[in-house]
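=== RUN LOG ===
request id: a7f3
mode: sequence -> structure
chains: 1
length: 230
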Amino acid sequence: MKLRPAETEREWMNRTLHRFARRCLPLLMANASGWELLCPSAVTLTWKGDNAVDGVQIDPPTPYVKSHFGYGIVTFYIPFVFRTPPGVSLLLRGPANLPKDGLSPLEGLVETDWTPAPFAMNWKFTRATSTGFERDEPIAMLVPQQRGDLESYAVYTAPLSADPDVDNAVQRWSASRTHYLEKHLTHDSWQKDYIQGRDAPPGQPQRRRRLAAHTDAPTTGTHSPHTGAE
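=== RESULT ===
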């Protein structure tokens, strides 16, 4: 099973009018925010709609994908044991912004800095149907997460007037956006405020990710500071 940095490209985005969806920098950044595991060979999956373990037909039969739980859940077995730095877990999720008709990815968060167990990627049918994966189609995305990071945040609301700088920036943006839409409503144009980082601090925004490619460790048990797979 191949492991690669997640790709920015999405065919459905390229097929939008004038490739309009590719103008959304948040989408493009999310697309590449992790490492993808690729399906080793083409497989067709068919669910009859019942809850039985044998309710999912897998064609051709293959050792890396099974109906293990029933309830329309398909399990991809991953032939790696992952190791991350201390305190870092791996979020196992579906490929970002890559919807699969009839199947929905089930996400998991694994403490890969200590567990010796491999894990699997699960997808759940949303209805009785037949679908599948092509060879080298992503079946999962791996995203490292520092444990305790989310818990460190406080979440609250406050009036915009509590921060005059933010309030003024919002008012400027709103007026600029209204003027732009009125002027260019029928034109194929693009305001580009966000992607060009107007009003952003120096050095921002980040416009692309360059993640490390998967390689074999030089010595057994030796890993880089980044995500390791054995």
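=== NOTES ===
Residues 177 and 191 are 8 Å apart (CA to CA).
The chain has a mean pLDDT of 88.
=== END ===
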